[in-house]
Amino acid sequence: MQLSVKRLSQLLRSNAVISLMGNGASAVLGFVMLGVLTRIMPKDELGRWLLFLTYFTLFDVVRNGFVLNGFIRHAASEHTNAPVFRRWVGAAWQLSALLTGSIALFILGLAVFVPLIAQSGLVPADWFSDSGTSSDGFGWFLTLMLVSMPASHSMWFWHAQSRFTPIQIIRPGIQALQLILIGIGWAKYGQLSSTWLYQSYALAYGSVSVGVVLFGGSRLRDVRRGTRTERRALFDFGKFSTGTLLLSNLLRSSSTFLISAFLGPAAVTVYTLPQRLLELVEMPTRSIVITAIPQLVALHQQQKVGRFADEFHRYAGQLWIALLPVAVGGFIFAEPLVTLLGGSGYEDSVLVLRFFMIYAALLPLERYSGVGLDALGLPNRNLQKVIIMLLVNVVGTVIALYLFKSVASVAFVSIATFLSGLLLGFRMMKPYAAVSLPTTIRVGWQQGSYLLNRVRHEFAR
Asked: So which residues are the signal peptide here (predicted)?
């Protein structure tokens, strides 16, 4: 009994469980917030906010991809060497500030093309006034880019030090603050606009950033310590990593952009609702996959090819079999899940969710194929894989929208998109490591059967 308690205590303190619990809290808050907003806002107004959030997520992915992965790869082994680690921290700040400033200038430059963008439907309508000039949407977007920097950087530095607990406090903390501000706005005005959501998100993010600066988590004091050597190393790795992460995010957001352009912001809400329910699979996938990267990288660097393949099969197979029942359950209970989250008026989202749950069954295997390529030091091959997936998704989405003018048809395209990425990823890894899709599935099935038999045995006793 004491041994079991000790093992349970160790499990609860593990990085995988901490990451899973933090992302779980974030997902729950996300569900609550979306459930509230679907009931108090019109579909088109909510669609504008969701499109705004999609654009910011895209920017955040670029910033994270350009700095975070390279920072972890180079600085994680140096986190006990304070002078060296500080140089990496300074370089990360410098490169991130340069990237953020460049993107900000690019966004300001878009003002030249405002009339064309306003008519395309690719940008939230309330970013522009009736005359076609920029409105406060651009301003709040730029503000959010700046105030989010300290909070984002703090999570990078803690990640490199394998300190996952504060990371998992910050993310749900931002959502909780925004949810409170939404409640205040609703109580005060009786209705909400998308602009209020922009403002509340910037204020929530900014408040958390102030907190991490005051407690030293942002490590602003090290900003001058970075040198050209560290900046160059981060840039060389980040140019591949950014492309991969950006295109991976576009796999999801490109459909949102195209739906907005073809069908309008109300259709974005219909599509996004089941996307959030997809978090039931995506959230644990992200949480667990990210904790496997350091060990796989270490095995590759130690040239333990056989061990690398064994661990890969075990990690990917276990995650696949663990999340398969969730995907099946989501498919079966799609209608009550949609009603629970969005209330009435979202019947069109039910079929979308069922298509999403089919591709969700493939998601853990596809994500691990990408992680495997990165761990093998092949970010360029991972980039190629994601480019092909993006092409499949964009071409398929355009055809689906042109022929069927249906959000559900776009969701169906996602199945072909992730199946192509899954098959490509395993094929690209094969020359460098003895991994295979059939072996991964077999190991996962064996692990699931073993666990099920253990449970039956315990109940029988």
From this structure: none
For residue 308, is it within any domain? yes
pLDDT 10s per residue in the chain (461 long)? 444 555 555 555 566 666 667 777 888 888 899 999 998 888 888 988 998 898 898 898 888 888 887 888 777 666 667 888 899 999 999 999 999 999 888 887 775 666 566 566 666 655 654 433 345 677 888 899 999 999 999 998 888 887 778 888 898 999 999 999 999 999 888 778 888 999 999 999 999 999 999 998 889 899 888 888 989 988 888 877 777 677 778 877 899 989 988 998 889 999 999 988 888 888 788 778 877 887 888 888 888 889 999 999 999 999 999 999 999 999 999 999 999 998 888 989 999 999 999 989 999 999 999 999 988 988 889 889 989 999 999 999 999 999 999 999 999 999 999 999 999 999 999 999 999 999 999 999 998 888 777 767 666 56
Range of the domain at 459: 264-461
Q: pTM to 2 decimals?
A: 0.80
One domain for residues 422 and 319: yes
| 3-class state of residue 363 by DSSP | helix
Whether 180 is covered by a domain: the verdict is: yes
Query: In this structure, is residue 11 part of a structural domain?
Result: no
Tokens at 414, concatenated: 């996602």
Q: Are residues 215 and 334 in the same domain?
A: no
| Inter-CA distances, 17 with 14, 20, 69, 235, 331, Å | 5, 5, 21, 32, 26
